[in-house]
From TrEMBL:
InterPro entries listed in its UniProt record: MucB/RseB_C (IPR033436), MucB/RseB_C_sf (IPR038484), MucB/RseB_N (IPR033434), MucB_RseB (IPR005588)
Organism: Halopseudomonas yangmingensis
Keyword annotations from UniProtKB, A to Z: Periplasm, Signal
Highest rank taxon of the organism: Bacteria
Signal peptide: 1-22
Domain MucB/RseB C-terminal: 210-307
GO molecular function: antisigma factor binding
One Pfam family this sequence matches: MucB_RseB
Gene Ontology CC annotations of this record: outer membrane-bounded periplasmic space
Protein name in the entry: Sigma E regulatory protein, MucB/RseB
Record CDD domains: RseB
PANTHER family, sorted: PTHR38782, SIGMA-E FACTOR REGULATORY PROTEIN RSEB (PTHR38782:SF1)
All copies of domain MucB/RseB N-terminal, residue ranges: 26-181
Amino acid sequence: MRSISRGLAALLLFACASPLMAAEEALDWLQRMHLAASQPLQGSFVYERAGSFSTHNVWRQVDARGQLLERLLQTDGAPLEQVRADGRLLCSSSLHTSDLALPVLADVQDVRGLTDWYAVQVLGSTRVASRTVTVIGLKPRDAFRYAHELYLDSHTGLLLKALMINERNHLLERFQFVELSDQAPSLIALQGSSACLGQPGPSAELQALSPGWHAGWLPGGFRQIGAHQRKVGEDWVEVVVYGDGLARFSLFVEPVDQQLASGLQAQLGPTLALSRVLERGQKQPLLVTLIGEIPTAAAERILAGVELLPVTAP
């Protein structure tokens, strides 16, 4: 009887430990992915969202100053192009800077913290771009973010394929390399063409400007990871970026004419744009727009929680 009890106890201990070990293995893979995010490369990938496909070339290299340079070039349809340095847009051939906001260099921040908001596990292995990959699944623990499948090079940890999936198990977005070289591209290959127009940098940090509004509610795990403002025409547009280590969204706040003050909603694949008007009494109202890859219910609740801060006496 004692031997049976010991055997049962050992079996139960193994059963409890196995999910923890599996999660640890998956987290180790995500850490490898994070370390590979600055790996030099050049290659081609396909991108799909909302049933639309496009093909792209990408070059990535670290320059002498330690900046991570990235150049993207769409090879079908309109010849869209972008060059970035450490994620900051240097030039773009499109006025719409989100046209090429693709997860080519998707990264994971605070790997361990992700387990509070996602169930993380190794799903198996397969091949992508003639390379063996390990598949990592991230299933959300709430309704405020999407599920992900990440296909990582089994030798380097480099992200070779990514799927974003909604709560109904429908594919929202696919990114997948079809050709890849680990050879570092030349700095000439990372230079934008004459069609790639320089972009102005952030004008000022919001923290120093004390904006008169704040997001009263955020989904668990999301925190502010960036803020700046830009001048558009005669007005300043304030931009605040939030993330949970994987998913991101941005709030854009700008004055709007009373006659034009109305909300909007649009979605392309996983990317949602939703806005509401924030009245300010006798002052010009503010238009608050959320753009990001989060479910509509989460975006609506975030926008509903944006409120003006009380005016303090000088």
